[in-house]
Task: inverse folding
């Protein structure tokens, strides 16, 4: 009997085959799909998949995020992806991804137990972002693992494997590497942009990390990008989705479009005449699932002969197979090792400790003239718009932790006995209003909250709580289990002490409505659903005076967030900061940008500090006090380090970032992060943003000396390499080499070193890289310790793809440099590399 006939026969049986955990997942998926009508199949191909009660299929939202922590409240928020990459630590990455997937599993089990099937409550996570950060202006570069295909690939493979935890065909979660492919800005143009890479750049820069994530990592999902490649939208690009992804890379899973990308096929790229044609083109190319609802036009496409049902069946089978492998249709006893995770793992003490470790390893020391670590400093002035802002360290695509430690809070908490730590904001982050959350330092006594089980603040509170500040983003979650997810309200009360006299703009940034009263007077109100923008009012405040603040808020449906924000008077009046600096022995300035400046559809036009912060820095430097700058950003900032005693890149370091920064500044932790991107001197060193040729881009191709090179990072100790390194082909393994070198810690601090191996082929010219990372290993050495470090190098890391994607080893003389950075640009605390030349 033919297989489909067998399936039809099975459909008549009492127990459906798709509910039998003993059958292979693919067969179960086929059995399920054959039972569906065409409309039911189409309903499963949109991210908000409908339930099918007659088949016992619950509704499911495929959209969950886990870039550097599962999105929700409260969850553990690790350093932003660019910071995780700067650890150069795949062991740590595995532990972080395991923690994220544990929290994702726990949240899913809790949602199912309470009959919730919403966004951010599933097991299919749209991460990691493994696009190549080829241009520092790109607003989403912070979400990536940096500019290097090899480092990105190693991090991606580790993240995907740990997230999915594949075991005997069962999946813990599904990871979704994105955005496939050749996608890295300009972001405002992404819905219509056509990327034109050279064929060799396509294979050697833009595709290797995806190849690794799929072929080695076993990713069960991939997200297609908004943009086009060579005139064909990525979500309808058969070359990318079928010829390369499935046939060349061996992809087994399903492809999901970026949100709204199917609409872009017709309205942005004008590739089709209507949405029925766009939907058909995408599914036929291999895009199985849509984030959006354009696939509702697939029935029309079938009727018009644009696509046949067997093609649709193939996509739905892939989707159902993923859900089956996740155990969604199994009884708990049969759903594998990932059946249940308790909610106690979510933002647990163990995960907060791991977040602290990740932040410690991610932070990069860029300059130190010997002033760091801080010692015998009894009065520290902490100045800057990022110093006490709890939102900035979380980056973007983030959940909300139970508590975020700012740099000011970290320095104050860890200050040696007898040390005074003071704080002033100094300036706004950028020109204009740019209202920021009011810091805890201006709200002595904290914020008291009362929650009500209705939208009108009526009756007796159902839950009360206290917090240091008012800056919450609960997403789709409730503030507490005692509070419903929707249709509630809250009243927050606090005492506000103004740091300076003048006219303030104070208000709320909320979803849904919010209003602010000061001493009983309403100064701001927008009591609407999903306010389009931040709402503020003007009020005159006196320095040192206490004011009663009352904030009212209601949540209707969807996302929930509320922040009490302000903009200080005198945007360019730096006197408070100058006075604070003069009264101190040393100044720690926490400067940089934020997710409001670099983000999705928001690229940077400059890579320098915002001008208002440049003025603040110059005003403080003019006091003559020693200044250490801590930068919080997701990309390079071109800042002249000459006047500074120390310069630290903290990225967006997550919920424990402030503690990690303070530990490094006080010398409790030896800095060990390394740059996963080039820090350019200016945009004059960067080609045109919309040019996707890699010539002169990133450390692999640029000939000029940057401000700080890829792989750079200082330590409080000194590492020396005793060379030359030994690079030999492994006996009996033709595709692997061994690189061996002796490394010594010749300083006085214990510390971590990131040993990096670069290969350069003599005579290489673009499109072949001038140099490339082919291996790395993080090691720990005690002061005075020596260690023989052995690393395995896969020959594929040395190979260069031709225009057809064929990997070939270009014959020639290769110089292997083993050291603490790019040869000739190593940090002074790592000394000269150990090198050897091998003819291949």
Result:
């Amino acid at each position: 009997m033919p297989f489909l006939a067998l399936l039809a026969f099975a459909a008549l049986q009492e127990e459906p085959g798709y509910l039998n955990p003993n059958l292979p997942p693919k067969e179960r998926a086929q059995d399920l799909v054959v039972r569906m009508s065409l409309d039911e199949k189409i309903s499963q191909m949109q991210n908000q998949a409908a339930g099918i009660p007659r088949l016992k299929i619950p509704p499911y939202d495929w959209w969950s995020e886990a870039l550097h922590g599962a999105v929700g409240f409260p969850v553990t928020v690790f350093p932003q992806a660019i910071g995780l990459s700067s650890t150069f630590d795949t062991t740590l990455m595995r532990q972080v991804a395991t923690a994220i997937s544990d929290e994702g599993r726990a949240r899913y089990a809790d949602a199912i137990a309470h009959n919730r099937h919403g966004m951010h409550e599933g097991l299919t996570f749209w991460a990691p972002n493994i696009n190549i950060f080829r241009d520092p202006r790109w607003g989403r570069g912070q979400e990536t693992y940096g500019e290097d295909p090899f480092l990105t690939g190693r991090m991606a493979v580790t993240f995907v494997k740990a997230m999915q935890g594949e075991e005997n065909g069962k999946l813990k979660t599904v990871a979704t590497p994105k955005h496939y492919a050749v996608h890295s800005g300009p972001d405002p143009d992404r819905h219509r942009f056509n990327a034109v890479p050279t064929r060799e750049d396509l294979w050697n820069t833009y595709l290797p990390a995806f190849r690794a994530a799929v072929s080695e990592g076993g990713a069960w999902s991939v997200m297609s990008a908004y943009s086009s490649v060579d005139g064909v939208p990525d979500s309808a690009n058969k070359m990318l989705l079928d010829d390369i992804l499935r046939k060349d890379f061996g992809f087994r899973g399903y492809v999901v479009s970026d949100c709204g990308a199917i609409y872009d096929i017709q309205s942005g790229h004008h590739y089709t005449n209507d949405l029925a044609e766009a939907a058909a083109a995408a599914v036929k190319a291999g895009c199985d699932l849509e984030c959006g609802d354009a696939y509702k036009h697939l029935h029309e496409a079938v009727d018009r002969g644009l696509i046949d049902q067997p093609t649709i069946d193939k996509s739905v089978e892939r989707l159902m197979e993923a859900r089956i492998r996740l155990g969604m249709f199994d009884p708990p006893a049969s759903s594998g090792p990932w059946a249940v995770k308790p909610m106690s793992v979510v933002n647990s003490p163990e995960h907060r400790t791991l977040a602290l470790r990740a932040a410690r390893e991610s932070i990069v020391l860029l300059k130190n003239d010997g002033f760091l670590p801080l010692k015998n400093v009894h009065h520290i002035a902490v100045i800057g718009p990022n110093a006490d802002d709890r939102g900035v360290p979380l980056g973007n695509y983030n959940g909300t932790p139970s508590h975020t430690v700012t740099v000011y809070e970290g320095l104050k908490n860890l200050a040696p006995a007898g040390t005074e730590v003071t704080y002033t904001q100094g300036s706004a982050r950028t020109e204009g209003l740019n209202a920021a959350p009011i810091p805890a330092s201006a709200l002595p006594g904290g914020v008291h909250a009362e929650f009500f089980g209705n939208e009108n603040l009526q009756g007796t509170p159902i839950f009360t709580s206290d917090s240091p500040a008012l800056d919450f983003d609960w997403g789709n979650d409730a503030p507490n289990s005692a509070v419903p997810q929707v249709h509630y309200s809250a009243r927050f009360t606090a005492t506000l002490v103004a740091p300076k006299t003048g006219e303030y703009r104070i208000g709320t940034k909320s979803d849904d409505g919010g209003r602010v009263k000061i001493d009983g007077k309403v100064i701001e109100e927008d009591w609407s659903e999903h306010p389009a923008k931040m709402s503020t009012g003007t009020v005159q405040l006196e320095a040192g005076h206490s004011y009663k603040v009352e904030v009212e808020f209601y949540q209707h449906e969807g996302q929930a967030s509320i922040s009490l924000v302000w903009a200080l008077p005198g945007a360019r009046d730096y006197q408070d900061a100058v006075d604070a600096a003069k009264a101190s022995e040393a100044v720690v300035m926490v400067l940089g940008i934020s997710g409001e400046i670099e983000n999705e559809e928001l690229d940077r036009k400059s890579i320098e500090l915002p001008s208002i912060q440049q003025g603040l820095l110059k005003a403080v430097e003019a006091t003559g006090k020693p200044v250490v700058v801590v930068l919080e950003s997701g990309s390079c900032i071109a800042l002249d380090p000459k006047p500074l005693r120390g310069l630290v890149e903290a990225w967006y370091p997550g919920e424990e970032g402030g503690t990690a920064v303070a530990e490094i500044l006080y010398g409790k932790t030896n800095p060990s992060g390394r740059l996963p991107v080039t820090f350019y001197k200016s945009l004059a060193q960067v080609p045109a943003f919309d040019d996707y040729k890699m010539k002169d881009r990133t450390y692999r191709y640029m000939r000029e000396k940057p401000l700080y090179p890829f792989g750079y990072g200082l330590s409080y100790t000194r590492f020396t390499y005793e060379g030359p390194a030994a690079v030999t082909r492994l006996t009996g393994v033709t595709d692997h080499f061994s690189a061996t070198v002796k490394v010594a810690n010749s300083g006085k601090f214990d510390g971590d070193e990131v040993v990096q191996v670069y290969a350069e082929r003599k005579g290489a010219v673009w499109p072949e890289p001038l140099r490339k990372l082919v291996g790395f290993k993080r090691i720990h050495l005690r002061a005075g310790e020596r260690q023989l470090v052995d690393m395995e190098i896969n020959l594929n890391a040395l190979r260069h793809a031709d225009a057809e994607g064929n990997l070939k080893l270009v014959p020639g003389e290769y110089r292997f440099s083993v050291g603490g950075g790019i040869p000739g640009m190593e940090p002074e605390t790592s000394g000269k590399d150990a090198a050897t030349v091998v003819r291949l």
Remarks:
- Residues 3-12 have pLDDT under 50 and may be disordered.
- The chain has 19 helices and 35 strands.
